[in-house]
Amino acid sequence: MNKIGHPIQPLSSLIKALALASILAIVILITVVLPAEYGIDPTGFGKAMGLTVLAAPDEKTVKSTMAACEDTESQREDAVKLLLPAYSGLEYKFFLKKGATLEYSWKTDGQSVYFDFHGEPQGDTTGYFKSYKESSLSADSGSKDMPFVGSHGWYWKNESKSPVTVYLETKGQYQVIGLR
Q: Is the pTM of this model over 0.70?
C-alpha cells in the first residue's frame, strides 16, 4: 500500500502568511473599500483613482431625489455634474411617461466619451432597451419624445486614463432616478 505524505507547514510560516494576509486586507480596506463604499479617503488614493464617486450618496441627496421622484406632472429643469472615473462608465436615468419630451444638453470638460442615450420600458424583465443615439462625442443636445413609459437616460463610458466630468442639463416632465 502506498502512503502519500503531505508536507506539514511549520507554525512560523503559517503565522507569517496570516500576518501578510492581514496587512494586505488592511491596505485594500483603506485604499479601495473605504473610498468606494463610504467616501472616506484617508490616503487620497481613492480620489486619485476616481473611487470616491462610487460612494453612496449622503442622506440629504437621497431625500431630495426621493422628493423629486414624487412629481412627474410639473415641468422641471435640472443640471447635474457627473464624474466619470478613468476606464469606467456610469448610467444616469429619468422616469418619463409615453409621449413626454425630454430636452437635454450635455458636454464634457473637453474629452470625447462613448455614450448611449436609451430607454427601458417599465416592467420589462427581458433586458430589452431601445437606443436613441449612440456615439463618441464631447457634447450633445436635442430633445426626444419618449416612445414608452419607463426609464430613459445615458450610459457614458470614459475610455481614457484620466477622469472626465460630464455636465448635463435637462428640461421636461420627468422624475429623476439618478445614478444607476
A: no
